[in-house]
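Contributing new complexes? Match this layout with zinc ion.
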Amino acid sequence: MQKYSIFSLFRHALNGHTTWAPAWRSPPLKASYDVVVIGAGGHGLATAYYLAKEFNIADVAVLERGWLGGGNVARNTVTVRSNYMRDASIPFYVKSVALYEGLTDELNFNLMHSKRTMIDVVQTFPKMRELRRRQLAMDIYGSTYEQISTEEVRRRIPALTGGGPDARLPVIGGMVHTDAGVNRHDAVAWGYARGADARGVELHQQTPVTKLLRGNDGTIKGVETPRGVVRAGKVAIAVSGHTTTLTETVGLRLPLRTMNLTAFVSEPVKPLVDVVVNCPDSGFYFSQSDKGEMVIGGAPDMGQSFRRDIKQHVFEDTVTAMLSLFPSFRKLKLLRQWGGHLDIAPDASPIMDETDVPGLFVTAGWWGGYKAIPAGGLTLAHLIAKGVPHPLMSPFTLSRFKHLDYVMESGTTTAR
Amino acid sequence: MMLIPCPFCGHRNESEFTYGGPVKPDRPDPNATSDEDWVEYLTTVPNPFGPVQERWWHARGCGTWLTIWRDTRTHDIVEGPSDAE
Ligand SMILES: Cc1cc2nc3c(=O)[nH]c(=O)nc-3n(C[C@H](O)[C@H](O)[C@H](O)COP(=O)(O)OP(=O)(O)OC[C@H]3O[C@@H](n4cnc5c(N)ncnc54)[C@H](O)[C@@H]3O)c2cc1C
Ligand SMILES: [Zn+2]
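Output block (do not edit by hand):
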């Protein structure tokens, strides 16, 4: 792997940037591998990377329907945080945030990780009570959360001029989560891809899996693609949103619904907000990108959806809510809008497990799963390599549904 | 924006409706069904890449509940499969 540094940048600049090696190879597709990972999104790529790096399993192919990093990993609003509610969840997200903070060095790829704090702007007492309860749980696991007054909220977010005492929902205070940050999603996908490739993992784009293949003994045997059958004793599904479509090809029904989540960005403006602003009672959140754009996310649409755009009324609801708290944003021109489809389990927590089809693993239910990419990849690789769950992932089994032992996290995400 | 056909009010704007979720099979008697089927009923709904049958409540209208088929790829309201009730 060629090392990226100020010196290599200088050296290649002298050659007119014609001498950079490709960041990963494009080898021919083999007929079989030890492990096939379906989906080159954040979770698929991280899983492949950690399989090779931590567990010396490098005979791995990542099969991607479209192009690498073109799924939700490229369509999300890059908020990385660990303010979750349950004892089962918090340590997992704390670990993931910590891994992100070291990832630029580890991958030798600038993630532009900006640990800039998230402030929850609270407008109802039930929400404030819920967040303070969350704080008590988070304290146990070393995740930071602290209540601040309305005055302090307004001091730290000067653009927040709405939500005054006469508003329908006045701002009553806030919560500060200093562990939170944002980073660069392309770099996450490309950095993991490059690191996995350097350790022998093969990345195959334009290779959709159309069907899973099961042997007579019931175990997984491989996958079918338009480029031919690829055999593997272990197959991991990391296809965010399309999980059930694939598992149903081997008769496996999973407790997942696919829903649409959306975002939009404004024109770039001068620095205005230096934290991630989350307004859970109004149903929107935003941060300002390094380029100066406001990156704004809203609530999801209600019904199941495989669409990748935003519905007009979801868009209007989000904008209306935002303008009630940030009236000056009325002047902003919006440049782009888009959506992504994600699957969600009844308790809004992820599913990372070996399924009832031996050798078939699934990582799914990633509603706010960008923050979870490092820990998700590391723990899934552990399960695939060792056959036993990593302690941090053990709450997120499929069998929790059999025992109705939910890890309820609806409310800590935008899911409703 | 979807225009949802209400049997009483005609085609009305989606914003007048509350989403009621995908249509599920009838609730089984928990004491007469296997644990597996009970869990399946509680946790798992159809998640098709295509038409799904779902319930909507005309809450800001006449108040009726209705059932439509909607294509999850396009959000078009479509005819259900002919063998469905
Ligand atoms: C608008 C929006 C905002 C979000 N904001 C945040 C946020 O702020 N913070 C956060 O933590 N999370 C956020 N998320 C969620 C996050 O993006 C996802 O949870 C996460 O990216 C999903 O994991 P992934 O990266 O592996 O998915 P993806 O990048 O979607 O990867 C799945 C890949 O599988 C491929 N694939 C699908 N089917 C097949 C097949 N049959 N064969 C081969 N390949 C296939 C797809 O093409 C895709 O590349 C947001 C999501 C959206 C849509
Ligand atoms: Zn009506």
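Reviewers usually confirm one structural detail per submission. For this one: Residues 90-107 of chain A form the longest helix (18 residues).
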